[in-house]
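Q: I have 210 residues here and want to know how they pack in 3D. Can you give me a structure?
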Amino acid sequence: GAAVSATGSSPLRVEDEELLTGRALFVADLPRPPGCLELRFVRSYEAHAAVRAVDLDAARTAPGVVGAFGATDLPDLPTMPPTPGNPVPEGMDRPALARDRVRFVGEAVAVVAGEGAAHTEDAAELVMLELDPLEAMIGVDEASRPDAPALFGSRSNVVGEHVVGHESLPSLEDAPIRFALTVPHGRLVPASIEPRGIVVSPQADGALIV
């Protein structure tokens, strides 16, 4: 049969009724297997700061909590994996939990594990972060200045430069009219309100129930 294209069409949404009437199944609605723990991350409230202290004592003794951890408690924690097709430049790895510095609002600094979402949410609020604010940069222009504070040690904030064009184009030096144009591009990162999620339960015989 002929290929069907969605370009230019306005297909009707089919998922709204279940979402709006409460019949849809969200990750929070999935039944938890016995022994399943909930995690809650404690995140930076500063855009750029040195991490002076992470006090987890109160969270660790809160009801229903089985553990609370910062980066120093998990020395073998790996760095965040790169996005497919976008390798991380050398020296710019982002830790799963910030250790010495936070570089954006919302960066994870600690994690609390507990028996149920209510316990972990309450305990996460007991974690005390001591962050010493550093100069923050708003926008690409500020961050790419030669005198901008470096986010990753001594290396430049500029990861790379790309020139768009083609060798076959005539020299612009001979053009009768020349002008420079700066085209701002808004930040756009489409993301679901709730990410996809599954519950996997290991069985005594080694099988997994997904």
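Q: Anything worth noting?
A: The longest strand covers residues 49-55. The longest helix spans residues 117-124.
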